[in-house]
Amino acid sequence: LTAHKRTPIILQYEVERIRKIHHGGKVKEDFHKLFAGEYIGDIVYGANDGIITTFAVVAGVAGAALSPIIVLILGAANLFADGFSMAAGNYLARKSEKEYRKTERQREEWEIDKLPTEEKQEIREIYQAKGFAGQDLEKAVAIITSNRKVWVDEMMIGELKIMESQDGHPLKNSLATFLAFVIAGGV
């Protein structure tokens, strides 16, 4: 079958699957937080590096006419050492990003508490840039600034361009990188 002939079947399957998930107009909370989606970047990053670096090490030592057992030992050593290095780097990066978002959120909360007039003006400017004007603009500002969490969320995104991340598990992200590296590199 060609892609265009399969599409209606796939779409029909998706529609039925989505209908089952949306029961009574209520969406199951975890539907959009599937495992693969949460860790896809870590898996691709680890697998790609695992394939390339392991191939480079094995090809290099094989080109040196070393015995096959030495080639395998060096390849395995590379798999685990480089895989661990990648996982540790990913862990530190994810943890640092998480701490940065937390610090910036605390700063915005402080600014809202201590400088509410200035922060309301920033919301006003953000929504003016989105095309709001007049009474609609003032209504949007009033609604947003009436809820502290919503207000902080809007400042994080609109002012700082920092999206709240759903990947709150740096250790799991690093494990996904390590496993993808070892599996793809081993192949």
Describe the structure.
The protein is mostly helical and 187 residues long. It is built from seven helices and two strands, in the order H-E-E-H-H-H-H-H-H. It has helices at 3-21, 35-63, 68-114, 116-129, 134-145, 148-159, 170-186; strands spanning 22-23, 26-27. The chain has a two-stranded antiparallel ribbon. Helix 3 crosses helix 4 (116-129), helix 3 (68-114) packs antiparallel against helix 7 and helix 4 packs across helix 6 (148-159). The protein is elongated and about 80 Å long.
Q: What is this structure, in a nutshell?
A:
The protein is mainly alpha-helical and 187 residues long. The chain is 80% helix and 2% strand.
The number of helical runs is 7
Mean of residue pLDDT? 85
End-to-end Cα distance, whole Å, is 30 Å
The whole-angstrom Rg is 25 Å
Per the principal axes of the C-alpha atoms, what is the gross shape?
Answer: elongated
Please list the strands of the largest sheet in the order they lie side by side.
Answer: 1-2
Elements, N to C (H/E) = HEEHHHHHH
Helix percentage: over 70%
Unreliably modeled segments: none
Strand content: under 5%
- Structural class of the helix and strand makeup? mainly alpha
The total of beta strands comes to: 2
Largest sheet: 2 strands, antiparallel
